[in-house]
Amino acid sequence: MSDTEMSSHDVAPGDEGASIGQRLIGYGVGLGLAILLTATSFFIAGTDLVWQPSIPVALVVLAIAQMGVHLVFFLHITTGPDNTNNVMALAFGVLIVILLIGGSLWIMANLNHNMMPMDQIMQMQR
Fold first, then answer.
1. H helices within the chain, ranges in order?
2. Whether the model pTM is above 0.85
3. Fewer Cβ in 10 A, N or C end of the chain?
């Protein structure tokens, strides 16, 4: 299969080879999906129609879906060979954020565990 045949069938939203009209349609679809996911999140959080313990799980799922929409439609992260550096940079950024948040939580939990309780401090001051 030649490159021209592959590029005509393997087009992701926002690829460089797309015309202006195709790009605008891609951005419009992305915007519509982002608005739909945001409205659904607000609806789920503010209604009693959904089983209450499932609300946090539903919000997390909708947030992950919205991240996917933004990555594909607006940041143009695709599986093409020309996007390898973008995917690696994104993975490195996610790794740094996970290490930063996880390390901070680990340090705070360790400090909380090793701190003297407040009532013992008050008794020592008397």
1. 3-9, 20-45, 55-69, 84-114, 118-125
2. no
3. C
